[in-house]
Every structure is written in structure tokens, then in C-alpha cells.
């Protein structure tokens, strides 16, 4: 049996991963207790903060984008269970029907899409 030597950095990464798994498990257990399936706006903002502290900037933008999507859906009365409607779709609808401040929404869509695409690619 071959043994691999671990560096301090390897040990740190393993411990960080275990902590992350335990945090996810704890969050999941609390959601089960609350009978809550979908994550809330505050959940996504909290996750963005955790990702920022871990310097996982891709996840920061993903969580902030999802939080924005949830806020827009809430304000427009769109059920969060409809997952085919994302942030840019909601903003497109607001611009299309000229819901104030639609000029700002148009610029926001451009920025959100731009940042999201950069992060994804």
C-alpha cells in the first residue's frame, strides 16, 4: 500500500472542505426543521458573504445574482417555484411593460448579464 505525504496546505484544504460540508449539512438540517425547501434572499446573501470570505468570487456573484432574482420575483409577484424565469427575464419584463424605473432596469440588466457572463466563462 502506497502512502502519500500530505503537506500543511493539503491538510488545511481537507479541513476547510470538511468545515464547508458540515456548514452545508447544518444549514440543510435547519431548513428541514423549518420545512423550508427553497432558499430565501437572506440565505443567498449569507452564502455570498461566506463565499467572499473564502475568496470564491464566482460563487459570490452567483449568490448575489440569485438574491437579486428572488427580490425581483418577490416584488413582481412571480412565484420562486418558476425557475425558468431568471434575473434577466424579470428585468426584460419590467422594461417591456415600462414599470418604473424601467430605464434603470435596462441598464441593470446589461450590467447583471455582463458580470454573470464573465463569471460563467
Walkthrough of the structure:
The chain is elongated. Helix 3 (57-76) runs antiparallel to helix 5 (102-120). The chain is built from five helices and no strands. 14% of the residues are buried. The protein has 121 residues and is an all-alpha fold. The chain has two domains: 1-37; 38-120, no CATH class.
* Secondary structure: helix percent: over 70%
Shape: elongated
Strand content: under 5%
Note the run of SSEs as H and E: HHHHH
| Sheet having the most strands | none
Question: How is the secondary structure organized here?
Answer:
Layout: H1 8-34, H2 41-53, H3 57-76, H4 87-96, H5 102-120
Helix pairs in contact: 2-3, 3-4, 3-5, 4-5
In short, what is this structure?
The protein is built from five helices and no strands. The chain has helices spanning 8-34, 41-53, 57-76, 87-96, 102-120. It is elongated.
Quick tags:
121 residues; mainly alpha; 2 domains; 5 helices; elongated
Amino acid at each position: 500500500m502506497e502512502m502519500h505525504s500530505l503537506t500543511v496546505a493539503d491538510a488545511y484544504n481537507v479541513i476547510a472542505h470538511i468545515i464547508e460540508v458540515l456548514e452545508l449539512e447544518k444549514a440543510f438540517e435547519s431548513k428541514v426543521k423549518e420545512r423550508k425547501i427553497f432558499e430565501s434572499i437572506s440565505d443567498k446573501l449569507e452564502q455570498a458573504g461566506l463565499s467572499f470570505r473564502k475568496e470564491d468570487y464566482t460563487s459570490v456573484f452567483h449568490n448575489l445574482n440569485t438574491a437579486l432574482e428572488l427580490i425581483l420575483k418577490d416584488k413582481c409577484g412571480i412565484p420562486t417555484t418558476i425557475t425558468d424565469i431568471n434575473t434577466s427575464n424579470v428585468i426584460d419584463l419590467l422594461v417591456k411593460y415600462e414599470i418604473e424605473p424601467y430605464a434603470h432596469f435596462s441598464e441593470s440588466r446589461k450590467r447583471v448579464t455582463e458580470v454573470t457572463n464573465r463569471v460563467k466563462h
